[in-house]
Fold this protein.
Amino acid sequence: MQGTVLKTMGQTYNVLTESGEVVLCTLKGLMRTKNVSTTNPVVVGDQVEFMPSPPDDHVISAVKPRKNYIIRQSKKLSKQYQIIAANMDQVFILVTISQPKTHNTFIDRILTTAEAYGIEAHLIFNKIDIYDEEELEDMQERMAVYENIGYHCIAISLLDDKSTVELIQLCKDKVTLLCGMSGTGKSTFINRLIPGMNRKVGVISDAHQKGTHMTTFSEMIPLPIGGFIIDTPGIQEFGIADITKYELSQYFREMNEYRANCKFNSCMHINEPGCAVIKAVEEGNIAMSRYESYLSMFLNEASEEKRYKKNDKPHS
Ligand SMILES: Nc1nc2c(ncn2[C@@H]2O[C@H](COP(=O)(O)OP(=O)(O)OP(=O)(O)O)[C@@H](O)[C@H]2O)c(=O)[nH]1
Ligand SMILES: [Mg+2]
Ligand SMILES: [Zn+2]
C-alpha cells in the first residue's frame, strides 16, 4: 500500500492512505539504521510504501525517491543533517523584524537551500501591526533587497484578515512548507487558513523577545481549498547542508550575471583579483547583506565536497 507521511512523532508516523484514511505506522527495523547521514529517515511529505503488521498497526517498508526536500544542519551538531520536509511545491519563509528578530543570514540560508533543490520561495513579513517607524523602515529596506532579485515578498499581520487574502490564495492546491524562527506565526497562520483549526500557538517571552517553541513535531495538514500546509517547529539556526564551496554562488541568483566575468574560472569570490562579483558588491549592484551571508556560509558550512547525495535515499 502507498501513502503520504502527514506527521512524524519520534518513532511513529501518521500516513494518509490512498483511500483517504490516516493510519499509524512504525518503521521496519532495518530502515532505522540504514541512512546514517540524516537524523530522520522518514519525513513529512514522503511518499511511502507500508503494510499491515499485526499486532502493531502498520510498518513503513520503503520511501519513494524525493522530488525535493529542505535539509539543514544544526550548527551545534554539524555532522548530522536533518530533512525538514519533502516533496513540496513552495516554501513560505516567515520573517519578523522584532518579536523575534529574524536576521538576513537566516533568510538567506533557507533561500540558498530552496534554490539548490529548485523550490519556489516566498518571503512573508509578519506582524506589521507591532512595528514602530524604524522597524517598518528596516522591513521595507529588506523587502526591497529581496524583491530586487526576484523573490516575491508580502507584508502582513495575522491579526488582520484582509492582509492574508493573497497569501491564502497562494496556498490553493499547493503543498506549502512554513519555515521560520519560533514565534514568527507559523501555527497562527494555519489557524487563519483553516476555519475551526486550533493549533497551539506560543507567547513571546518578555525577557528575550523569542518564541517558546510551541510546535514540536512537523505536520502536514490538508487544506479545505485544496493542497496541504506543513507546520514545522521553529528553528533558531538554519545551517546549509551539503552545498559545496564551489557551487554556493550558483544559488545566489543575483550573482549569476556577474560570475562569468570573473578573471579566474575557479573564482570563489572571496579575495581573488579581478572578481566581478566583489566589484558588483562594491558598486552597489549586489546587496552587501547578501554578500555577507554568502561569506558566512562559505566560511562556516559550505563543504569541500558532497557528502549526502541526492539519490542517497533510504530503502529497506
Ligand atoms: N501582534 C501580532 N502577533 C502575532 C502575529 N502573528 C502571530 N502572532 C503571535 O505570535 C505568537 C507566536 O505565534 P505562533 O503561531 O505560535 O508561532 P510559531 O511560528 O508557530 O512558533 P513555534 O511553533 O514555536 O515555532 C502568538 O502569541 C501569536 O498570537 C501578528 O501578525 N501580530
Ligand atoms: Mg508553531
Ligand atoms: Zn569572482
